[in-house]
Amino acid sequence: MTAPTREVLSFGSFSLVPSERLLTREGVTLQLGARTLDILIALVSRPNEAVSKRDLMARVWPDVTVGEGSLRFHMASLRKALGDGQEGARYIATLAGRGYCFVAPLSRSSEPGRQVAPDAADIPRTNLPSRLVRMVGRADSVLMLSTQLAASRFVTVVGAGGVGKTTVAVAVGHDLVQSFAGAVLFVDLGTLSDPNLVAASLASMLGLSFQSQDPTPSLIANLRDKRILLIFDNCEHVIEAAAALTARIFASAPQVHILATSREVLRVEGEQVYRLAPLTVPPDDPGLTAAMALTFPATQLFMERATASGARLHLNDANAATVANICRKLDGVALAIELAAGRVAAYGLQQTAALLEERLSLLWVGQRTAPPRQQTLKATLDWSYGLLSDLERVVLRRLAVFVGQFTIEAALAVVTSATVDEALVFGAIDSLVAKSMVASRPVGAMMRYRLLETTRAYALELEADAAELAELAARHASYYRRWLEQSGAEWPALSSAAERAPYLAALGNVRAALDWCFGPHGKADVGVGLAAAAVPVFLSMSLLMESARWSERAILALDPGMRGGPQEMQLQAALGLSSMFTRGSSDAARGALTRSLAIAEERGEALDQLQLLGLMHMFHHRAGDFKTALHYAKRCSAISGTVADPAAVALAHSLLGRSLRHSGDLNGARRELEAALQQGRGASRASGLYLGFDHHNYAGVALARTLWLQGRAAQAMERIRQTVEDAASLDHPGTLSIALAWAVFLSLWSGHIESAEEHMDWFIAHADAHSLKPYLAVGRGFKGELAIRRGDVKGGVETLQRCLAELHAARYELLTTEFNLSIAQGLAALGRQAEGFDLIEETIRLVEGNGDLAHMPELLRVKGNMLLSMSRPRSEEAEALFTQSLEWSRRQAALAWELRAATDLAALWARWNRRDEARELLQPVYERFQEGSDMADMKAAERLLASLD
């Protein structure tokens, strides 16, 4: 029998096995997204042949309607993975108006098929809880749910509390984990008390950042082209929010499958309901035998759990009726059966049955109007609590303060008191775990515990001393404040769901503690400290709305003695920053940042002042007030001389360099920015990050722009390429957005339209995925720019005008000058010279007022061209403006602007038959360029010089 063969396609250093969807480079497997790999296979299967965009989209997205932007985005990812265009390598050509073509030399070969043992590092990782070693009576349910999920994509498991919904959902997830290539995410909604946090929690688990009040668009954009199984557990207490979110995901993300568990139906479009019934129980039959009883899942579960708890119990014909009676009394509810079985080792089968009968019979009669399964579960919990020792009861009641998971360290810190020492707490928790009153499972190297929600709800209803409860809640809040202070530095580095899961679970306790602290019976002073520790973590996890909410609550709760201290400083800074991104650059945001900085100055802490000056610089920079931003940058630079922290010094250089570039001091800007990058190499990357913003990358972006203006286009493009690559590796959405935005602008300035479009598609897709609202408006502005350059001047101008209206509303004025220049030139091209001229004059007044003088040479040049394009050209005035533009360019050392102004002035002189003067002006400027010969401006100057000979 011959071994199967596989076809191998080789090109450059790459080998592609289409049948195995395997791409390697020099033997190393490359990880490409499914869509990106589909594009490569489609192109390689038709080498040296034009493949239209329509054909590619039909093959890659056969069942989904997408725009060309999606294709361009994945094509950019493919080219980046192949290194297309680097060091002379060329694999994919873009054929204008026709599509794409694979152009690299390609060889085909066959080799024996092989089976590769999976490498441990490649095994998919999920955040699913551990499944039971053996699940009793649910195999059919798991199989049916798996089949139903594949067919309908959205299934809700509905049943009573304790019936086993979570157990079944986890089992389905484990069965399907390979089918989804490891992309199975378990979302425990039971830890949330606020329905508004449902979408935010999922966004954080996915590692998404958003800068808007509603993260749902971010989730939809991120999930739209992903194949993933989302398991939403415990939906009933946040049912409206869960229903709205799952409906949006189901409708907008065609490859996402959803499995929900709830005590009631979500009642949304697309939902299929699977009602999970209790385990079947033996009938009340006097002739029941052991063999007959063991055919029922309820009996099987009871026996397995009793034996596992240490009971020496063997089912026989004599005791089969007793076991069956217990299972019937518990109505087949899995949780109730497990709790009862766990007591057999201590009390024996007969006594367990007697106690259960006694307790349940009283409660059953008293609550006939309640649903039967709720009666049974309540009775079981009541009975189980009655069997605990006094110490176990105390510990259980105290553990109910925790929401979701907690560690043994947390339990010891909160539960231990003057009457219950640590040794007793250890013993009690071990006993409660053994009695199934507390669940446990390992997470990494640490065991984590939780009360099942039904158990916790029961414990919270028990009578307890109000003073004791208040003390317990205060200890709980104090513990999580300490935990946040100790672990807060780790949060910015977390990106994957597996890394975030333990921390996000703990955030449920932080939220619960904050709710208590600022509630009617809480301690606001404890809440202030907790909020001050929590808001930086909320910021680094991109939970901006929560940061703003708790900052405001805590600031209002400050007593006079706490004002002006480090906690108010932290809270005001967090409020200002989160408000800036969620509510715009408002007066309230500026007021909070100003107050925070004033406190830092009063305290005299240099590092605090540097960080807050950086935030003030960011605020005014985004608002387009470049003069004020320069003021803060200079203050930051002065203070940096008093500290020895490399990251702080690098921050000061970065801020000053960016401000000097706006002011037109390009030489000074370049010195500062290069110093920032050099200084930053001596600092750890984590220390270079402040609340998710990497000033090292910001310096790289500003340096690229400076180099371009100084006539070093090749160096500028290489710098922006490195900066984009570096920003992408950091997984900080805001940082990557800034880098991509200026990659678009530099490509546009250079006349590289295709490169600009590829970066624009990436920028828009990224902003959409992370709900970065101002940047989405900027992306629409980029589309307007490209439309104008491709001939749709009217549409481009209208798009840019709408974009600027959105940015003005958000007080985001960073790019106003850039977009005004494009609009003005577009208006002139439409014959609306007067409007364009007025806009240019308005913009000149704007930059004179706000300090954005780096644009002055270009504004004067464009104004001169406006005068020349009028029905009665004002040539002499235009000549004067071109001359002023040259003077400004030379003062700023802006060789790129100087070339444009010299070209326009030389062209004007040539029309006046002053050809020699024109050549003498333009030739030396042109010859000063050592790079950038492929720039549109260089080609225009070259053509003009040729015409002057």
Structure description:
There is one protein chain. The protein is an alpha/beta fold. Among the domains are: 5-119, Winged helix-like DNA-binding domain superfamily/Winged helix DNA-binding domain (Arc Repressor Mutant, subunit A); 124-275, 3-Layer(aba) Sandwich (Rossmann fold), CATH 3.40.50.300; 290-369; 390-464, Winged helix-like DNA-binding domain superfamily/Winged helix DNA-binding domain (Arc Repressor Mutant, subunit A, Orthogonal Bundle), CATH 1.10.10.10; 465-578 and 593-598. Helices cover 62% and strands 8% of the residues. The protein is built from 42 helices and 17 strands. A 5-stranded antiparallel beta sheet has the order 4-3-2-1-7, covered by helices on one side. The chain has a 5-stranded parallel beta sheet with strand order 9-10-11-8-12, sandwiched between helices. Strands 13-15-14 form a 3-stranded antiparallel beta sheet. Strand 3 (22-25) and strand 4 (28-29) form a beta hairpin. Helix 19 (466-487) runs antiparallel to helix 20 and helix 23 (566-583) packs antiparallel against helix 24 (587-603). It is elongated. Residues 114-124, 360-376 and 682-692 have low confidence and may be disordered.
User: Strand arrangement, largest sheet?
Assistant: 4-3-2-1-7
CATH topology of the domain at 124-275: Rossmann fold
Number of strands: 17
- Approximate strand percentage: 5-15%
User: Which residues form runs of ≥5 with pLDDT under 50?
Assistant: 114-124, 360-376, 682-692
The radius of gyration is: 34 Å
Biggest pleated sheet: 5 strands, antiparallel
Number of H/I helices:
42
Shape: elongated
The whole-number mean of residue pLDDT values reads 84
Distance between the termini: 78 Å
Name the CATH architecture of the domain at 124-275: 3-Layer(aba) Sandwich
What share of the residues lie within helices?
55-70%
CATH superfamily of the domain at 124-275: P-loop containing nucleotide triphosphate hydrolases
